Amino acid sequence: MEVNINSDLGESSKFHSTENDPALLKIVNSANIACGYHAGDEETMERTIRISKDNGVSIGSHPSYLDRENFGRKRMNISPEEVTKLVIDQCEILNKVADKLKMKVTHVKPHGALSNMACENYELSFTIAKAIKQFDPNVIFLAHAQTEMEKAGRDLKLRIACEVFADRNYEDNGYLVARSKPNAMILNREESAKHVLRMLENQALNCYSGKQIPCDIDSICVHGDEKTAVDNAQYLREVLIKNGFQLKSLDKLKKIN
Question: What does the pLDDT look like over 108-132, one tens digit per residue?
Fold first, then answer.
């Protein structure tokens, strides 16, 4: 079975260092690159794209609310027109840098509060999906599995990759446990890998309560902002390969193409 490992990278800011990025880019298959609205800048984007290119990693934009002060994690209510503009603008910002380096933006993954709100809200998800389609109708929408985001993308006939998280727990409604809760993260590498294998084998979300929610799974996100990130990601990669999974960049997954 083919599967993808992705990570949110290029997120240079007062909240987050990019020191793990070079190591992670030797492990993951696809990079979601910050476009300056919640983190990152042109120099960081260019560096991240260069390292991605050297490692055969596909790149995608990681659009957020314009909110560097809160790392894009503060919920905001803005108009559909504003949402459309911020998504397209960030895709074009990354695309401009990628063009210079002869790389193609192959996917889009919303970040932070924009993503969490879209998971719960079909109208917001539909607006984001329309903006992605306007940017490039052939680009892949990397969406949280079994959410309004996935539903909106499919309704608009976008190429969808369904994502689960290696290092996050799920509530019974299929949403991620809020980072403010003590059980939000799974930082032990064995527990994280077991969590992922169970989801892949059952094609279902593992909720913290033990409940399982059937879903499609194409990609696994590993976060790069913990001290254990590189070791955990490398361990997960090894476990997946050992269990017969073929690791591919999003644009190479047969199911999506």
Answer: 999 999 999 999 999 999 999 999 9
**Does residue 207 lie within any of the structural domains?**
yes
**Ranges of the chain with pLDDT below 50:** none
Tokens of 145: 């599995």
- The DSSP symbol for 43 reads H
Locate 213 and state its tokens. 């929610």
Separation of alpha carbons 135 and 151, rounded Å: 19
Q: Cα separation of 118 and 104, whole Å?
A: 25
- Pairing status of strand 212-214 against strand 30-34: unpaired
Could you tell me the two tokens for 133?
């389609």
A 10 A CB-CB count for 76 gives 14
C-alpha distances (whole Å) from 3 to each of 23, 231, 232, 255 are 20, 19, 17, 10
Q: What is the pLDDT of residues 150-175, one digit of tens each?
A: 999 999 999 999 999 999 999 999 99
- Class of residue 81 by CB neighbours under 10 A (exposed 0-12, middle 13-18, buried 19+): exposed
What CATH number does residue 198 fall under?
Answer: 3.20.20.370
Total structural domains in the chain?
1
Report how far residue 254's alpha carbon sits from residue 158's, in angstroms, rounded to the nearest whole number: 15
Angle of the 112-120 helix axis to the 122-135 helix axis, nearest 10: 120
8 in a domain, yes or no? Answer: yes
Helix H or strand E segment including 214: strand 212-214
Distance of alpha carbon 8 from alpha carbon 109, whole angstroms: 9
